[in-house]
Amino acid sequence: MATMSGDDPQRSVEQFLYRQAECLDTGDWQGFIDLFADDGIYWMPADPSQATGDGVPSIFYEDRDLMAVRMRRMMHPRAWSQKTEWGTNHVVSNVRIEKHDAASGLLVARSRFHMMEFRNDSTRHFAGSYIHHLQPSPDGYRIRLQRVDMVNAQGLYDYVLQAWV
């Protein structure tokens, strides 16, 4: 688990985001889910103008329970979609803290990402920005909300996203 680095929230947030990317790239799905607060939400809007994911179509709008369902589906021995050679590589950069309440420790961080996915002998690239609403916990941060805005969210895909970006 990425821990908070003393009085340097910038470094703590960077290390946390790198840990999240590592969970995704190694298929540590439970580790990824554990980074979320009990009421945490992973949200990827279908359109960048969306102000909420509640009650409107989104690419992803999952709480921890729905993330656990996705994880079990991906890990199921008969999950055909997982039988092909598959992997991702995330690069997270341009991390900046937008808001930080020093008293409560709550903060909002923005960053950029690039993800390469290899599956079925082909490569796809996804890029965009993250917004993380983070709360401190005894062993690091927990995600209250992660918003993922992909540059190519409205593009055509020959297959759907299997896991989180």
TrEMBL record:
InterPro entries, per the entry: NTF2-like_dom_sf, Rng_hydr_dOase-bsu
Protein name: Aromatic-ring-hydroxylating dioxygenase subunit beta
Pfam family, one: Ring_hydroxyl_B
SUPFAM superfamilies membership: NTF2-like
Molecular functions per Gene Ontology: dioxygenase activity
Keyword Oxidoreductase among record annotations: yes
Keyword line: Dioxygenase, Oxidoreductase
BP GO terms, sorted: 3-phenylpropionate catabolic process
Domain of life: Bacteria
Family: Belongs to the bacterial ring-hydroxylating dioxygenase beta subunit family.
